[in-house]
């Protein structure tokens, strides 16, 4: 029982160290993750006999961010976890993408595209993924972008968003905006038209 609690506390400390040193996270996200760490440590200090369900729930809360993101901070977090012998389940969005050929959600697609050029060269990353897997992920990231580009082009040509495509259109707009792709694939007038189509959707 105590060993599990010690591992959880150490996990929050690793989280705090990675978050504090991060150049990727904004201050609001950093504060939220620090608050989460503090909450977990405070709960465990007040409940030294926490049951397995409580500990599992706390671990899940801490690991949610690190299981959903694709970036160098996440690699550092899990490397630290392994070095400290903390065996908590890791769910890798890129493994899911390799298995399925697509990303589970738009946030992971955005993360992958924005961080891929640096991530794929990390020694810890290359130790876990083969060259063939890295090349396949290159393709999946490119295919993801191309599919989203096709949705936006189709809506632009029709000057309308099909009822069934509204959520997909919004995801594509978020993807292109946060990946700084609008100016690469569309003119200024086309970008304005896309936003107009979005605003006028009924």
Q: What's the helix and strand layout?
A:
Blueprint: H1 2-21, H2 27-46, H3 52-68, H4 72-83, H5 93-100, H6 106-119, H7 123-126, H8 131-158, H9 166-178, H10 182-185, H11 188-199
The general outline is: elongated
C-alpha termini separation:
55 Å
Largest sheet: none
Encode the helix/strand succession as letters. Answer: HHHHHHHHHHH
Q: Give the % helix.
A: over 70%
Low-confidence stretches: none
Mean pLDDT: 95
CA radius of gyration: 20 Å
Number of helices: 11
The fraction of residues in strands falls at under 5%
User: How many discrete domains?
Assistant: 2
Number of strands: 0
Q: Structural class of the helices, strands and pairings?
A: mainly alpha
Describe the 3D structure.
There is one protein chain. With 202 residues, the chain is an all-alpha fold. It folds into two domains: 2-83; 98-199, no CATH class. Helices cover 75% and strands 0% of the residues. The protein is built from eleven helices and no strands. It has helices at 2-21, 27-46, 52-68, 72-83, 93-100, 106-119, 123-126, 131-158, 166-178, 182-185, 188-199. Helix 1 packs parallel to helix 3 (52-68) and helix 1 packs antiparallel against helix 4. The N and C termini lie far apart (55 Å).
